[in-house]
Amino acid sequence: MSGAMSKRARAPKDEPQRQNRSRAVSELLPAIGGAAFKRFGFVQSSIVSRWPEIVGERWANASSPESIRFPMGQKSGGVLTLVVRGAHAPMMQHIAPEIMERVNRFFGYAAVAKMQIRQGDVAKRIPKAPRTNPTAVPPELGEGLKGIVDPELRAVLESLAAGVAATRGIPKIG
Q1: pTM of the prediction?
Q2: Which of 3, 102, 104, 121 is 20 to 30 A from 16, alpha carbon to alpha carbon?
């Protein structure tokens, strides 16, 4: 009778089922980063990484999102807290409605209803250097990439393809 009982039936019910497969690091990273960002008030970590796209380079160099706090049990009507360089605070206060509109457009719904400004140091952003292609993408690897519309994704994949083409033999780790 005990031989007929499967391993799943014998496992405790509160233990999660194991997935006996290897997983890509990219599967694990969003969970790791997401937990840290949620702890500091960010539901979506991309607001920090894409801040220059949301508010523009000019205001991204003078400000940085610190947190978004939502009312208990809600995901809208939150308070966005920005860290702003001292001299820029009056201007940021003046354009607060525009910034809230841009953040809400980024989220796709009315996530932010108020904005608080805290004066402080903002880390200097290093402007992105134009991407150079040190080695050309081989035609057999590059044909499939031409249909990708997103230029950033295409550039990353072309860089990966060029790196794969440039390697010879077994990669050395160290």
Answers
A1: 0.51
A2: 3
